[in-house]
Amino acid sequence: MASSSSIHSRLALIALLSATTFYCIHKYRRLKRLKNLSSKLNPSAATRGKIFFISQTGTCKALAQRLRDLLASNGVAFDLVDPRSYEPEDLPKETLAIFVASTWDGGKPPKDGEFLVDWLSESAEDFRVGSLILSGCRFAVFGVGSRAYGESYNAVGKELSRRMVGLGGVEMVPVGEGDVDDGEMDGVFQDWCDGVIRVLKGGSAREGAVGLVSDGEYVDSTDDEEEEGNDDIVDLEDIAGKAPSRKNGVVKVAKGDGKKEMVTPLIRASLTKQGYKIIGSHSGVKICRWTKSQLRGRGGCYKHSFYGIESHRCMETTPSLACANKCVFCWRHHTNPVGKSWQWKMDDPKEIVKGALDLHTKMIKQMKGVPGVTPEKLQEGLTPRHCALSLVGEPIMYPEINALVDELHGKRISTFLVTNAQFPEKILMMKPITQLYVSVDAATKESLKAIDRPLFADFWERFIDSLKALQEKQQRTVYRLTLVKGWNTEELEAYFNLFSIGKPDFIEIKGVTYCGSSATSKLTMENVPWHADVKAFSEALSLKSNGEYEVACEHAHSCCVLLGRTDKFKVNGKWFTWIDYEKFHDLVASGEAFTSRDYMAETPSWAVYGAEEGGFDPEQLRYKKERHHHPKPQPQVVVA
Predict the structure, then answer these.
(1) How many other C-beta atoms can be found within 10 angstroms of the C-beta atom of residue 366?
(2) Are residues 310 and 173 part of one domain?
(3) Please, which of 29, 176, 341, 352 could form a disulfide with 192 given CB 3.0 to 4.6 Å?
(4) Are 288 and 173 part of one and the same domain?
(5) Residue 143 maps to a domain
(6) CA distance 20 to 418
């Protein structure tokens, strides 16, 4: 019995030793292969490094090109690589790899870089690949994103770094993080590039701050006593999400309440170049082309046709250049800041209105002497009667929006406010305004996310609640639909389903305006619908409503159509979409409750849908630009 037990013990020991031996042989051969691979991939070899750009709008590609040129000027040759044309299996052959990557939808990479990022993630989790496959590769990552998206900020860049390290890669410098909205990304990127170049030349990642030790780990060489003396350093979350751009890696508190100004010098320069006049630290004003047009007697905008405003007496402004969306059709090319809440220094509403009026009238005065501008029209233009709070950004974000509206109404200036349907609580607390718009850029959750690219994770719930909030308003309310061909023009049924949620007085349906090429949008002229397309879409919506809404007006030049509620604004077969502005101001001044019916006015025949004028005021002079296009060659007819 004892002998049998002894034999079993010996056999078990032999089996264990055999398994251990086989494992050691396997491990030895694997390490030998990796060692051979590593020796082939020695950094001293003449292999050129590669810069991978993972880009959605072109920003990362431009930064990658800038880095390549900078490295070349320092005698270091790198190739620029589009990940779509690269085989990730070749990464173990690389000795130097730099990634410039953007973070897109929900913390994911753009489609062009999905395969490469997924390969790295899968390889790092696959035990068969091992943790030394990239041990011969030195790398660096610069991420591009927006802090306004919260936890997903630069998620792709951080993921790339983590996976590369997990596969044995040696990180040359810490992950660089550029915020496209803070106006400091160029400086941050340049500092990061300088660190990369220093490492490639044999120095440390950052002079006097971070060094790269032999095993690839970072050590902080900043003097402890120096850190203790920096009493004016604050946490980044306390300063509106600004990224550190100075070499000491900290941001100091501004004087006063410590809040930053919304408009940075870079944003101010960009908006000024586009013709905006900046008011204080977060507001702006710009003269509209229709204001100029009606000053010259060449026709007014669609609001003139639909609601009777005098376009030459309309001031376009906003008390908040910031927005909570990054819409694909944004005609400001995303030069304005973004944010989910007000986190900047705040200017006084009276000063904003005064500044807007002063700057607006200065721009009107510049029209003196322009052909067609009469002294009478110029004088009228110097006294604005309407204010379109829709210039750029999200005006309803401004905490003192009610006080600003009161200031305008006190000067008998009507208010047309547009909100992007992400702040329902702000809509509910708004005082009466002349007309309140909600942008309805899409009718489904998926398309709204794709078109508006909202910052809020609960954007759809906010959108629906914003529509519901309209029902609580007694004054005029409007859905503003922007049709983008190929994006939302097929959602007729879904749009109709939204009517019952907000029950707006009017529905404006407008074709998207193409504003030229932009790194932030992939829209082309192919996405712009014809006026006939907009009319057909509007008529189809009207039919679906079974008479609740009918097509009331059109402005062919703006490719815009208006639907109106028949039970409120069609009286005895006539439309009353226009506004009695003097009556409105009297009602506001009275302090008593009133509704949209109390200040409506009859729509002139030329503005009604189907009129031969197409919404063009016959008292204005229609002006058409001469087009010097070469005529198409006509086919030649040969007579035998």
Answers:
(1) 11
(2) no
(3) 176
(4) no
(5) yes
(6) 73
184 and 285 assigned to the same domain = no
pLDDT class for 334, splitting at 50, 70, 90?
very low
pLDDT of residue 402: 97
Report the number of secondary-structure helices (H) and strands (E) in the chain. 19, 22
Strand boundaries in 572-625, DSSP class E: 574-575, 578-579, 600-601
Beta strands at 138-145 and 78-81: parallel, antiparallel or unpaired: unpaired
The CATH number for 478's domain is 3.20.20.70
Rounded Cα distance between 468 and 504, Å, is 10
Q: Residue 354: which region, alpha, beta or left (left: phi > 0; alpha: psi -120 to 50)?
A: alpha
How far is the C-alpha of 244 from the C-alpha of 450, rounded, in Å? Answer: 30
> In terms of residue numbers, what domain contains 374?
276-607
**Residue 193 domain-assigned?**
yes
* pTM assigned to the model: 0.66
User: Is 552 inside a domain boundary?
Assistant: yes
On the question of pLDDT at 242 being above 80, the answer is no
Taking the CB of residue 293, how many other CB atoms lie within 10 A of it?
20
Q: How many structural domains comprise the chain? A: 2
CA atoms within a 13 Å half-sphere pointing along the CA-CB vector of 72: 11
**Which single residue is written with the structure tokens 């780990």?**
217
* 57 and 194 share one domain: yes
State which H helix or E strand residue 551 sits in: strand 549-555
Over the stretch 345-367, which tens digit does the pLDDT of each residue have? 999 999 999 999 999 999 999 99
* Distance (Å, whole) CA 624 – CA 534: 22
319, 283 contact by CB (below 8 A): yes
- Please report the pLDDT score of residue 522 as a whole number: 62
Closest-CA residue to 301 (of 364, 388, 368): 388
What tokens appear for 588 in the block?
A: 């506001």
Q: How far apart are CA 151 and CA 567, in angstroms?
A: 48
Could you report the per-residue pLDDT of 14-71, keeping only the tens digit for each? 776 766 666 666 555 655 554 454 444 444 434 689 999 998 878 899 999 999 999 9
Q: Who wins on pLDDT, 247 or 620? A: 620
pLDDT bin (cut points 50, 70, 90) of residue 616 is very high
